[in-house]
Each structure stands twice: as C-alpha cells, then as structure tokens.
Aspartate aminotransferase family protein
Amino acid sequence: ARGLDGRLGELVARRQRAFGVSSVLFYEQPLEIARAEGVFMFDASGKPYLDVYNNVPVVGHCHPAVVAAIAQQAGRLNTNTRYLYESLTTYAETLLGTFPAALSNLSMTCTGSEANDIALRIARAWTGGSGFVVTETAYHGNTSLVMEVSPSSYRKGRELPPHIRTIPAPDSYRLAPGEDLGEVFAGHLQRAIDDLEGSGIRFAGLILDTVFSSDGVFADPPGFLARAVERVHRAGGLFIADEVQPGFGRTGDGYWCFGRHGIEPDVVTLGKPMGNGFPMGGVVTRPELLECFCAETGYFNTFAGNPVAVAAGQAVLDTLQREGLIANANSVGGYLRDGLWRLAQSDARIGDVRGAGLFVGLEFIGVDRAPDGALASHVINAMKERGILIGAAGAYGNVLKIRPALCFSQANADQFLTTLQAVLDVG
Ligand code: PMP
C-alpha cells in the first residue's frame, strides 16, 4: 500500500492484511473496478476501461442473456447434480455437438484446474504411465497434480518432478530458415518421450494449451500440431488439449483451437469462458477413457453442472450462436492484426504479430530479436493510464496478450490501435 493515498491505499492495506502474500493485484496503482458492461469495465469513479485482457466474459461483461439466465435459475432451483434435470443433459448435448463425434462424453467441473486434474488422471489410468510432456512456460492449473505440469508457476530453485519433461514452445518467430515448425516441435517431443522411457518412466501423455498462451501465443501455421499428436499416439500416450484459454470460439474458426490443426485430441479440457464468469469447467473425452478412469476412482463434484451453472453455460452457447460471435472474432481479429502489422512496419520494436481470431500476441524485441519485457511492461502500464487493460505472456513477459470479449468491434480495435500508437510514440 506504500505510496498509495486515501481510499485506494486503505483498500490495498486491508487486502494485504487479510490475504498476506497470496494477495495478487494487477498494476503498481491497482484498479478498483466497480462494474462492467460489454467490452468495458468502469472504475469506482466511473472511468471506462476497454478490457482487452479478460478472456472470461467471452460474450461480453454482464451480458443480459447470461445475467437473466443465472438470476432466473437461482430463484427457481439450485442443487447438486445427483437429481435429474433436463437442462444439464440439454447443455451437454449442445456442447458435445460442437466436438468430433468420438468425443461424446462430458464431465463437469468448476474450474479449469479440476478439468486438467481429471484429464491427467484419465491418461494415467489408461496408459498405466506417469510421464507427461509439457511446454517450458506452460500453465495448466493449481492442484498438486496439475502444478507438476505448470512450470510457469515454479519459483526459483524448485525442480520439476522426475516424471515430467518440458519442451520448448513452438516459437514460429525464431525458426531457422528452412525449418518446419511441426517437425521441430515433434522432434523435441520425441526426444522427451525417449528420455522418459530411457529413465524407466512410462509415457502417459502430452498436455498442451492449444494456443500456447503463457508460452507467448503460437497459433500458426494451422496444422503444425498434427505431427506431435502422431508421435504421442505412436508412443502409446494420450493427447490432452487444454482449451481453457482459446476455447469457445476465440480463435475465430470454430469452437475449438485444436480444430485449426486438423487433429482429434483424446481429452479436451474447458474452463474460463464456459460460464462467462460463473465458475464452470469440463472434460470432454471418449466413453472408454472415462470408463477406465471411473473404474479406478469414480468422480463426483458437488457444485459442477448445478442448475445455475448450466443456465449460465447454455446462455453462453446460445449467445455465441445468436450473435455470430465466432465470425466476429475472425473478422475483427483479422482487422486488428492487420492494424498491428501496420504499426510494426514503422516501429522496429514490434518484432512479430501473431495469433488467430481474437487471441492475438504482439512481441516486443530489441537487437537480434532479444525479448524486451521492460517495454511490454511499460506499454501495459501506459495503456492502463489511457483507459485500456491488457496483459503480457511469454517466458520473458515481452508478448502483449490481446484477448477481448468476442463482441469486440472494429471501433474498439481502432481505439486500441490509436492508443498503442500514441503510447509507442511517446515512449
Ligand atoms: N489451463 C490454462 C491454459 C489456463 O490458462 C488456466 C488458468 N489461467 C487453467 C488451465 C486453470 O484454470 P482455473 O484457474 O479455472 O483453475
């Protein structure tokens, strides 16, 4: 709270007293957010902020259809999931309709972490192995099992467990001339699998965020993941597609980012946008995989898929469809990336612009493409002062992570581009 005056200082001090070191806040001058609507959030004084960071409210903050669905259901019935109510099954049918036919079973969770925990357990049960491969800066969640495959959370000096191997992210920007991204990535994976097996650890699977968000956002070229998935299956493992970040249409060419790669995962995990802010997650897989897992431990979750959650989730799916938001993500995302490339042409500090739909990464560099995390951090704080909220990704924090709600308009994109240009011109 040092350096902060008045009400803000007092709020921060109270929060730190209550939560200790576990209190995590954005920005040196934290924001007190009072309400939100569409793509905007408003602070306590009423100042609007264009929210280009928060990928949870996928159909827009406080979307009236989602708010009404939650409110009506909360006033009628909320209970655990051991009773029969049609809305849950209808929701599952709608959701599963967006997946390849073989992925025909859904398990509900409350968070992405729980979903990944189950996915890892499915892979362990099915393969009898314990070895997993993940990317170097991956994040998959907060349970003790999922933390093992979340190297980005490891603090100095803490080592990965012996049954986990990390591989470099598929860095399309730093590929040597003539190299094929899919080959390079599959090569790293194969060496990791061989290394596990050579240490007497059976390979259980590969878990990837299909847009590589915390690794720095890598979506192209479409199809580059196919070779890696082939290697996983040849080695007897499962491929887990973590769609917690890119899922529900954000990448603009269908509901799921794995679709861009023409691959069929064995397990898909869902979270963040699923309830537009209402805590929801899920695991989609083939029946035989779920059966194998449940034969070992069973699975019950008191809150997951309760009637209110399902109302939120159904309203999200219906709104995505009704408002054509996936097509909007595609067109506005393309418009935004074109604008960012125009900025890059006159500013050598922007090394790369990439992504798909409204999941966009912009990489700041210095000489010889050295990552410039300090510039990203400066831009993030300066953008906030000018009313735009944005985050960073990548091992060096030098990649702007651009992920607005899918109702982001061209006018919103223009505001973002003009402000970024102004911030870069000053600093
Ligand atoms: N997977 C990915 C790719 C994530 O980004 C996150 C959250 N940042 C999770 C899983 C975990 O989700 P949750 O916080 O809902 O447990």
Summary: The chain has two domains: 31-59+324-426, 65-322. The mean pLDDT is 96. The domain at 65-322 is CATH 3.40.640.10 (Aspartate Aminotransferase; domain 2).
